[in-house]
Amino acid sequence: MSCCGKNRLQARTSPERTPLRRARGGPVGPVRQMMLVEYRGTGSITLRGPVTGRDYVLSRTGARISMDARDHRELVRTVTNLRLVEHRG
Question: Model pTM?
Fold first, then answer.
């Protein structure tokens, strides 16, 4: 059976932790710029964002999705069937 005094001593000697607090009135993390892109290829395609690791599923010709601007910069170099529709940010 353990002694309660031992637990109090351990609690006093452990490092103090301060809780994380969410900033009031603003976003918690950085605001990401988004791009609205349109798929001009045939069939469907799933792209993995090289920066975010997010999967982008384009199910048909003319499909539009919002894509993180960091992924867009990389994917537009290799996927010729993507067209920028609108820069949101």
Answer: 0.61
